[in-house]
């Protein structure tokens, strides 16, 4: 197999048009570039958001605000920081919107887990269940937020586990 530079069309593909991205009016294979996964990257996958400079810093602070808020308030206010970032920066770019929405959704899920633990604790018979729920929520909060901060530092969106899709 031979190497073809990125600007060269592959065999069977249309070369760059006036815009330099493929034959106009669309991109990729098929008539007018409307092939499988039109509007997405290779294989029909949505584009990966890559952030630069200030956006990465805001994303890191978004994840840290959720963690710090949850730790200071015993799990009750972790969603407030990401919600504020989402409200302020949701129209700035898709990276910040996805970052703040994911952090909010995850922190809201952890808030609900915390509330369920308090209900279990109040029933006295389910105190062991409450302790397990608090431990699971605490470990998930710390581990997932640290992973999210590391991913945001690279300029990538972190997909939290166990999140309710409230914000998008």
Give an overview in words:
The chain has helices at 53-72, 80-89, 94-122, 127-153. The chain is mainly alpha-helical and 168 residues long. The chain has two domains: 9-44, no CATH class; 53-153, no CATH class. α1 packs parallel to α3 (94-122) and α2 runs antiparallel to α3 (94-122). Residues 1-6 and 15-47 have low confidence and may be disordered.
Global Rg: 22 Å
Largest sheet: none
- Helical residue percent band: 40-55%
Q: Indicate the structural class.
A: mainly alpha
Shape: elongated
With helices defined by DSSP (H or I, 4 residues minimum), what is the helix count?
4
Measured by DSSP, the beta-strand proportion falls in under 5%
Name a few traits of the molecule.
168 residues; mainly alpha; 2 domains; 51% helix
List the helices and strands and how they pair.
Layout: H1 53-72, H2 80-89, H3 94-122, H4 127-153
Short note summarizing the structure:
With 168 residues, the chain is mainly alpha-helical. The chain contains four helices and no strands. The N terminus is likely disordered.
């Amino acid at each position: 197999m031979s190497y073809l530079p990125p600007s060269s069309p592959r065999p069977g593909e249309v070369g760059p048009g006036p815009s330099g991205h493929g034959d106009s009016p669309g991109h990729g294979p098929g008539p007018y570039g409307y092939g499988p996964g039109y509007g997405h990257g290779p294989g029909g996958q949505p584009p990966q958001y890559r952030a630069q400079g200030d956006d990465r810093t805001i994303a890191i602070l978004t994840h840290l605000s959720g963690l710090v808020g949850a730790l200071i308030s015993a799990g009750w206010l972790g969603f407030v920081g990401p919600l504020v970032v989402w409200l302020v920066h949701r129209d700035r770019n898709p990276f910040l919107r996805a970052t703040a929405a994911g952090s909010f959704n995850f922190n809201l899920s952890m808030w609900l887990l915390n509330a369920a633990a308090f209900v279990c604790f109040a029933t006295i018979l389910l105190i062991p269940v409450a302790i397990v729920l608090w431990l699971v929520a605490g470990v998930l909060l710390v581990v997932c937020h640290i992973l999210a901060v590391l991913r945001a530092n690279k300029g990538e969106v972190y997909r939290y586990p166990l999140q309710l899709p409230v914000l998008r």
